[in-house]
Structure formats: structure tokens, C-alpha cells
Amino acid sequence: MDQKVGILEGINSPDDIRCLSIEELNILAGEIRQEMLEVVSRNGGHLAPSLGAVELTLAVHYVFDTPEDKIIWDVGHQAYAHKIITGRRDDFHTLRKMGGMSGFPKRGESVYDTFGVGHSSTSISAASGIAEARCLKGGHSKVIAIIGDGSMTAGMAFEGLNWSGERNKDLIVILNDNEMSISPNVGAMSSYLNRIMAGQQITKLRAKIRDFLKTVPGVGEHVIKFARQTEESLKAFIVPGMLFEELGFKYIGPLEGHRLDHLIKNLRNVKAMERPVLVHIITKKGKGYKFAEEEPSRFHGIGSFDIATGKTVAEDNSIPSYMKVFGRTMVQLARENPSIVAITAAMTDGTGLDQFSREIPERFYDVGIAEQHGVTFAAGLATEGFVPVVAIYSTFLQRAYDQVLHDVCLQNLPVVFALDRGGIVGDDGPTHHGLFDYSYLRTIPNIVVMAPKDENELQRMLRTAVECGGPASIRYPRGSGVGVPLDQAPESIEIGKAEIVREGKDVAVIAIGSTVYPSLEAAQRLANENIQVTVVNSRFVKPLDKALLSELASSFKKIITVEENVLMGGFGSAVLELFEEAGISGVTVKRLGIGDKFVEHATQAQLREKHGIDAEGIANAVRKIVEA
Ligand SMILES: Cc1ncc(C[n+]2csc(CCOP(=O)(O)OP(=O)(O)O)c2C)c(N)n1
């Protein structure tokens, strides 16, 4: 039997690694990487972050007494090795599949998953809470937060450091520094960490020069003395970790994050300390797989690919994604209008703003993983006459709710929110579905809330939004568009104007965004059964087209609303509220959307089917309401 496979096969819990030698651990690290490659190349997933954290994972489980000692992963996209060695190796092939293993740590999945994650920068706060609970209960377990340098750019991480440094409780923060967020990291903290690394290299170089000079009789001593004098002025520059020390953390590092002997030795020392400690380790994103090391951003989160070539399994690229259309339209509109600026929170490629960043760099801002800062920064720009377009995934804007409300909408500032990944996103699961934005945005005064039925309407809505003079949001789904022709010069849409896209006499289906085409398909299927359906593309969640909806209510006794959003407070609720306010009665309204439960991971198609918002689900709802 191949010896390599042999070690991993015997690992059913962290206990099984604690008896291995360093040499065996190194072999195990290679086997784990191979396992990850095989599964992620088939299922897709966060490969580069997980490849970079293999030795770190092994060292932490080796030194600490997990699960009594608690590891809290930040984001959790780097935790595949953790999953593999904590009793989930046999199920790892189900990663991100319907009913299979989650792509992120999840409390219900394992006792080793201390805290559920997906959104970044929560680890230090969660770890502080767990450490505090330990003290209240009189326990002695160790609490270890593992956070990347990208995630360290968020305000929440600083809030956690600030608070727990002063509490002075036994808490370990491991900073996994690979100089990358999804793209190269940004911000002063990132530069600071780079200086620490540079400082360490300078220190090593200086020691070498000093040793050499000592061997030069007569001259050497004078030069060393002079060097010592100048060194003082460089002190702040080369004393590593001053910032963390000032915040109350003992700073250890930087350590080489792929050297198991080095990591284990240092972590053992850290384990003996009973105070806040920050361990700074340096790793390489994508470590051990050539293509991921060369292109860490592409392999950050990737679909199926060929291991031998690193090439993504060919997708049908003939229809552009919503993301691409958004990115292109942004460049087009910004060329016409010099007041348009673009903002991303560490997702330049993931939002389609990469083209904008290259072609109009002076009006492009990557604020790091700092959605709250990004939104209020946009508000500031807007007060000075700019029209900021803030491109943030629907799920991540949740974090900046108060900034949207208090800083943008309350002041009625012209900030546009471009919410990609609206609706069901698929295999990333509940932490990433964008199922709440209609509800959380439509309750805020002043904002216009829209969702396009296709990629051409996205272009038109983007123009509408940047020209509307107040806050506006546009949400669109993950994945490719519908395949409609794209206007060369997209025109704006009258705000609050819906459109009838199909006429029929029996039932009216009022759809929004990604549910318009499935509604049309349902209507087509039903026509064969002699059920005639009117389909309305509402375009706006707010303001609704009051005239058209009132007219529908007088022509139809049966109305269905469809949305890829939670039903509570969503689009259908808005329609019901409008009917109530307009004194409309005698209409049966059935709302289709997502019930009051978090949606698990699976493909988008599987989940849309499960929740009855695909064409067949809509057709079934129509059949039911017709029969009732
Ligand atoms: C609040 C929030 N915003 C954005 C993201 C998307 N995201 C996932 S991982 C990541 C980069 C994290 O960088 P880092 O912490 O350095 O980890 P690395 O991937 O480099 O290992 C980003 C921006 C997120 N998960 N949460």
C-alpha cells in the first residue's frame, strides 16, 4: 500500500495525529493537500486558503487539546484540513453537495466546529466571548482564534482586539498572514504587517553583516558602533508587533507557517502563557499546488477544474454573467459621467469591478473587508457631489445595515447599492444566500429598491439608479444572465413602473427579478393546460406600481407573487400592504418565496425547486389556486 495514503487513512480524530513524528506530520500534510485537491477539483470550493493553512491546522490540533480547547476559524474557508482530521474524512467528498458537508465550520456538524462562520472577522469577538464564558464557569481551556490578514482589515476584528487586549484574559489569536485577501490585501494594517516581515529580514541581514564585520580586524568594530547609533532611529520600524503589544497582546512572530517543527515549538510556548497572545505566522496562499500558488485569487474560490492543467472545467461562456454586465456598464456610465465612483469591499473581481479598476483607477476604491466603512465612505463622497456605486454582495451588506439607514438614506444621499449574489447562491449555503435584502431595504425611507428580470434590464436599472438623485439598490443573481440582447446605449426606466410581460385571463403572477423568466416559463406550460396567466415584471420592490397593481386586483380574483427572498417583509408583503392601504379586498393572494427557515447549501437549481420558485413550482401554485 502507498505509505502516503496510509497515514491519512488512520486519522479519525486529532488524537491520532498527536502521536505522529514531525516527519510523519509532513507526509500527512501532503496527503491532506491531495485529498483537498481531488474533492475541490470535483465539487468546487475554497482551495487556495485551505491549502495554505494545512500545517497551521495540524500544529494547532497537535499542540492543543481540541475539542476541549476551542478553535474559532475566521470566515472558515480555510478549514478543510480541520474538517478532514476531525472525523469527517469519509464524508469530505460530499463537500458543498446537497445534504453533504458544509463548506464552512458549522456547529451542528461537529463538536470541533466551535463557532459557525462564513462572514469574515468574527473570530476574535467570538473567541473573547468563549474565553469569558470559560472564566465564568471556572474552566481552564485554551481559546484560539485563527484569522487571516484580509479579515484583520475589518472593524470588527479591531473591536475584538481592542476589547480583549484590555480584559487581559487567556486568549490566543493566530494571525495567518499570506499578504492576500481574495486579491492582494489593502490598507495600512497590511502595510504594517509587511513592514514587520521586512523588519525581520533586515534584522537577520544585520546579524549576518555584524558577524562578518567582527572578522575584519580594526575596521569592523567602528562600523558596528556607527550602525548601532543609526539603528535606534529605526527601532519603531524593526521592533515587530508593537501595535499588538500596545493593544495588550504579547506578540510572537513572525513565524514560518509551513514549518511544522517551528510552529509546534512556538505554539507549545504560547500554550503556557495565560494572557492575550497574538501569534503572527506567514503562509503562502495555495501552498503545495503550483497553479494555486501562481494564481491564488483564481483559486480562492473555484468551480470544478482539471488538476493536471489547473484549467476550470469549461462553462458555457456565451451568455455573460450579471456580474460581467454590471462591470461593463459601470465603465460605460462612468465614462459619460465623471461624478460616478466605484467602491468594493475586497471583492474587485467578485463584483465585476476589475475592468473599472484597470480603466478608471482614479475613481475606484477597494476599502478592504470593511462593508460598514465602505458605505459611510460612499455617503461622504456623495455629500460632495459624487455618485458612489457600492458593489457589495447582498449577504455582506447585512453587516452595514445601520450605515445604509443612518448615513445614506436618512440624509437622502445618492448612493447606489449594487447587490450581486441576490437570492439563492448555491453551494456556499446559508451564510452566503442573499435572501433578505428586499426585506431589510424596503423598510428604509427614501431608498428605491429594484431587481432586473435579465441582464439588459440590469444595465437600464444601473442608469436609472445613478440618475435618480437619491439612494437606490439593484439586486441581481449569481451566475449567467438570461441571454437577451444587450442595448448599446441602455436607457433609464421610469421609477416605480412595472411591465406586463404576458397577458392571460385566469390568474395574475406578479414576479420580481430572477423569478420573472421562470414565471413566463410556467405560464407557457400552463397555456398547454388551458390555463391563461398574466405575468407582470414588477421591476421595483419599492416604490410599487400602484396603478397597475390596483388594476390587476380589479381584473383578477387570484393573484400570485413570486420572489427569491424571504417572504417575511419581502416583495409579496409589499403587495399585500399596498392592497390593504388602497382598500382593495376580495382578492386571493398567494405569496411564493422563502419561508421562515435558513436555506442550506445545494445547487441553485435544486434549491429553487425545493422552495417552489422555479417554473414548475410556480406552475403548481397556479394550478392549485385555479382549482381552489
Ligand atoms: C463580511 C464579509 N465580507 C466579504 C467576505 C468575502 N471573503 C471571503 S474570504 C475573503 C478574504 C479573506 O482574506 P484572509 O482573511 O486574508 O484569508 P485568506 O483567504 O487570504 O486565507 C473575503 C473578502 C466575507 N466572507 N465576509
Unreliable segments of 5+ consecutive residues: none
Task: Strand order, main sheet: write it out.
Answer: 7-6-8-9-11-10-15
CATH topology of the largest domain: Rossmann fold
Bound molecules: thiamine diphosphate
Number of strands: 17
Q: Which shape, going by the Cα principal axes? A: globular
In total, the number of domains comes to 3
Largest sheet: 7 strands, mixed
Helix vs. strand class: alpha/beta
For the CA atoms, what is the radius of gyration? 27 Å
Q: What fraction of residues sit in β-strands?
A: 5-15%
Relevant CATH superfamily of the largest domain: Thiamin diphosphate (ThDP)-binding fold, Pyr/PP domains
> What's the average pLDDT?
94
CATH class of the largest domain: Alpha Beta
Proper CATH architecture of the largest domain: 3-Layer(aba) Sandwich
How many helical stretches? 25
Cα end-to-end separation: 65 Å
Q: Percentage of helical residues? A: 40-55%
Description of the molecule:
This protein is of the alpha/beta class and 628 residues long. It has 3 domains: 3-294, Thiamin diphosphate (ThDP)-binding fold, Pyr/PP domains (Rossmann fold, 3-Layer(aba) Sandwich); 322-475, Thiamin diphosphate (ThDP)-binding fold, Pyr/PP domains (Rossmann fold, 3-Layer(aba) Sandwich), CATH 3.40.50; 499-627, 3-Layer(aba) Sandwich (Rossmann fold). The protein is built from 25 helices and 17 strands. The strands form 3 sheets. Strands 7-6-8-9-11-10-15 form a 7-stranded mixed beta sheet, with helices on both faces. It has a 5-stranded parallel beta sheet with strand order 1-2-3-5-4, sandwiched between helices. A 5-stranded mixed beta sheet has the order 12-14-13-16-17, sandwiched between helices. α21 (516-527) links the parallel β13 and β14 (533-537). α1 (3-9) crosses α2, α6 runs parallel beside α7 and α21 crosses α25 (615-627). The longest helix has 27 residues, at 188-214. The model has no long low-confidence stretch (mean pLDDT 94). Thiamine diphosphate (TPP) binds at residues 49, 52, 75, 77-78, 119-120, 148-151, 178, 180-182, 285, 300, 345-347, 369, 371, 396, 399. Residues 49, 52, 75, 77-78, 119-120, 148-151, 178, 180-182, 285, 300, 345-347, 369, 371, 396, 399 line the site of thiamine diphosphate (TPP).
